[in-house]
Amino acid sequence: MDFSIIYLFAALILCFLMTWGVGANDLANVMSTTMGSKAITVRQAMVIAIFFEFAGAFLGGGEVTETVRDGIIYTSQLSDQPLIMIEGMLGVLFACTVWMNLASYLGVPVSITNALVGSMVGFGSIVLGTDAVKWFQVSHIAIGWVTSPIIAGITGYALFISIQQTIFIKSNPLEKAKLYIPVYLFLVGAVLSFITVFKGLNHFKIHLNLKQDLAVTLATSITITIVGLLFIRRIPENPNIRRRERFIQVERYFAVLMAMTACAMVFAHGSNDVALTVGPLSIIHSLVVHSNQPFGAENYPAWIILLGCIGVICGFLMYGRKVIETVGSSITALTPSRAFAATLAAATTVVVATSTGIPVSATQTLVGSVLGVGLARGIGALNLIVIRNIFTSWILTLPASSLLTILSYKLIHYFLG
């Protein structure tokens, strides 16, 4: 009996459940600073999440699957054993599904990137031996996991201190905000340009030289600055308000910046994490439907990405509140200005790391930047118990996902092999 369709159907179910967990954890983490600071309403957050997650996945997520297929282990050694590869990818899907949903239930932010790398290492080690694992690549990724939260934390700390020094400690914070907000808007525009415009251009095979890159970045940054200022000008003002109320007015300005930065982060999440999470499913689909063709991004249909997007959005809307509470309010209290500093620092770190070829986790990067912003207010502003739990979950993700994959592969191979 041919079990190919059964394998594919099982992969579809597991992939949806895994992406549901990614939405409840990874995407919730990305949106946590925006929602925790109350910069936007729940309805606005839903619109941003749905639109930019889909846009990022379809415009920027074409080549990420290659990392899952041959970036961690030498899967070419299994080219003549497609059934082993299918069983392994089912094990990877099951392990990541269990881990991501368990973390979401506990309310701790973990990275699907870490879980997938751990799962692939476990699968490669048990089937092909440890020599089949690309340890140099794995160590390169692991270094990014360690350095990115540190860099984002330092950047977030410096950015929030600059906001404090230039705006909040001044005698006329409202006037200073009007002076410096365009500068921060321009920075947001530059980050948005790198994350969205260039991802979209690459999707359409449009490659620019350095001068063209700078011209596009400049034009995008200026456009976003103008759009942001138009939104800010719509915020009602009262020149006779008291000093304390002026701070509230300034925070309303930063809420606009926060919303725009959130769009960039969600787009980046869609372009990287959605394509990554459907990687195992796309491999199984390729082996089942295109068994006589070499695997490639062109060999799997758009509905696989669509399935991933739907799963992520459903998970975020139905069960994202726990992770949002952990990162958005439990680590440290966030206002729109603090959340803006944290999110822009994380987005900048992701952009710089991606452009230099260093793989990073958006989840860990954002948590690191939130820690940096909290530290700018003193160690007492941080909830050390929550931070300890988050770090523990990060450390456990790699070995836990690896062991879960080994166990699930053994069971699948025993019953189906």
UniProtKB/TrEMBL annotation:
<protein>
    <recommendedName>
        <fullName>Phosphate transporter</fullName>
    </recommendedName>
</protein>
<feature type="transmembrane region" description="Helical">
    <location>
        <begin position="6"/>
        <end position="28"/>
    </location>
</feature>
<dbReference type="InterPro" id="IPR001204">
    <property type="entry name" value="Phos_transporter"/>
</dbReference>
<keyword id="KW-0812">Transmembrane</keyword>
<feature type="transmembrane region" description="Helical">
    <location>
        <begin position="214"/>
        <end position="232"/>
    </location>
</feature>
<feature type="transmembrane region" description="Helical">
    <location>
        <begin position="40"/>
        <end position="62"/>
    </location>
</feature>
<dbReference type="Pfam" id="PF01384">
    <property type="entry name" value="PHO4"/>
</dbReference>
<feature type="transmembrane region" description="Helical">
    <location>
        <begin position="253"/>
        <end position="271"/>
    </location>
</feature>
<dbReference type="GO" id="GO:0035435">
    <property type="term" value="P:phosphate ion transmembrane transport"/>
</dbReference>
<feature type="transmembrane region" description="Helical">
    <location>
        <begin position="183"/>
        <end position="202"/>
    </location>
</feature>
<feature type="transmembrane region" description="Helical">
    <location>
        <begin position="300"/>
        <end position="319"/>
    </location>
</feature>
<feature type="transmembrane region" description="Helical">
    <location>
        <begin position="142"/>
        <end position="163"/>
    </location>
</feature>
<keyword id="KW-1133">Transmembrane helix</keyword>
<feature type="transmembrane region" description="Helical">
    <location>
        <begin position="115"/>
        <end position="136"/>
    </location>
</feature>
<feature type="transmembrane region" description="Helical">
    <location>
        <begin position="339"/>
        <end position="360"/>
    </location>
</feature>
<comment type="similarity">
    <text>Belongs to the inorganic phosphate transporter (PiT) (TC 2.A.20) family.</text>
</comment>
<feature type="transmembrane region" description="Helical">
    <location>
        <begin position="366"/>
        <end position="387"/>
    </location>
</feature>
<feature type="transmembrane region" description="Helical">
    <location>
        <begin position="82"/>
        <end position="103"/>
    </location>
</feature>
<keyword id="KW-0813">Transport</keyword>
<keyword id="KW-0592">Phosphate transport</keyword>
<feature type="transmembrane region" description="Helical">
    <location>
        <begin position="394"/>
        <end position="416"/>
    </location>
</feature>
<keyword id="KW-0472">Membrane</keyword>
<dbReference type="GO" id="GO:0016020">
    <property type="term" value="C:membrane"/>
</dbReference>
<dbReference type="GO" id="GO:0005315">
    <property type="term" value="F:phosphate transmembrane transporter activity"/>
</dbReference>
